[in-house]
Amino acid sequence: MSVLDIKLERAFDVFDSDRDGRLEKADVIGLSDRLAESLGCAPETVATLRTSLADLWDTVFHAMDKNADGGVDRQEFRSAFRARIVTDQNRIWERIRNMSNAWTELGDRDGDGMLSREEYTSLLHGMFRLPRETFDEAFNELDVDGDGQLSRDEISSAMKEYYTSENYAARGNQFFGRL
Q1: Confidence class of residue 16 from pLDDT cuts 50, 70 and 90?
Q2: pLDDT band at 87 (very low <50, low <70, confident <90, very high)
Q3: Half-sphere CA count of 14, side-chain side, radius 13 A
Q4: Which of 6, 53, 92, 122 is the most exposed place for a label (fewest CB within 10 A)?
Q5: Which of 83, 104, 79 has the alpha carbon at shortest distance from 92?
Q6: Beta strands in the chain (DSSP E)
Q7: Which of 12, 34, 139, 156 is nearest to 93 (CA)?
């Protein structure tokens, strides 16, 4: 299995919030509800994130459902994501960047436009329910300039590396924790 396949498997698991081996629209949009719950805020607070996740489903994930059964299995996800990255990269990145910006804004509790280690860890733990230690380690790799904060550019760059790089040593591979 290639490095990219390993990362796509992990991404599938992160989005499959009910762990049934299929991605459905409710799984993807439900990530916003998980985040609202973990931040202790009302669901309407995450409306922008919810909208960006719905758009991500409607424009990217839904098209992966080759057998039209309303869900995307691992194989459909992996093969379609690889194909779409090559043919439709700009459209995918626009959607991913919108989602990333929406959750970064929610996680940026002090309003400085950056994510501190605690903000980043709380945000991703709340949204994806992975152990906090996973994201604490990842933060060190993703903080390219070593200023103790993650900028939107650092986050966007890491996400792009995560979903495209075949280089095992790429910093962005750490986005969801160590491979």
Answers
A1: very high
A2: low
A3: 18
A4: 6
A5: 83
A6: 22-23, 72-73, 115-116, 149-150
A7: 156
* pLDDT tens digits along 38-54: 888 887 888 888 898 89
74 vs 38: CA distance, rounded Å: 27
Residue whose tokens read 């043919």: 87
pTM attached to this predicted model = 0.82
φ and ψ at residue 150, rounded to 5 degrees: -110, 125
- The per-residue b/e assignment along 120-131, b for 16 or more CB within 10 angstroms, e otherwise, is bbbbbbbbbebe
In the chain, what are the helix, strand and coil shares in percent, each to the nearest 5?
70, 5, 25
